[in-house]
Amino acid sequence: MYIQMRGIYKSFSHVAVLKDVDFTVGNSEVHALMGENGAGKSTLMKVLTGVYAKDSGDITVDGRSVNFIHPKQAEKAGIVFVYQELNTMNDLIVEENMFMGKEMKKAFGVVNKKAMVEKARQTIARLGVSIDPNAVMRTLSVGQQQMVEIAKALLADVKLLIMDEPTAALSPSETKVLFKVIERLKKDGVSIIYISHRMEEIFEICDRITVLRDGRYIATKEINETDMADLVRMMIGRDIGERFPKRNAKTGGMLFEVKDLGKKGVFDGISFSVRSGEVLGVAGLMGAGRTEIMKAIFGSLSYEKGSILIEGKPVRINTPLSAIKYGMGFITEDRKIEGLMLDDGIDKNISLNNLKLISNAGILNKSKEEKLISEAINKLLIKCSGKKQRCDELSGGNQQKVVFAKWIYTKPRLLILDEPTRGVDVGAKKEIYSIINELVENGVAVIFVSSELPEVLGMSDRIMAIHEGRVGGIIEKQNATQENVMLLCTGGTL
Question: Are residues 139 and 271 in the same domain?
Answer without folding.
Answer: no
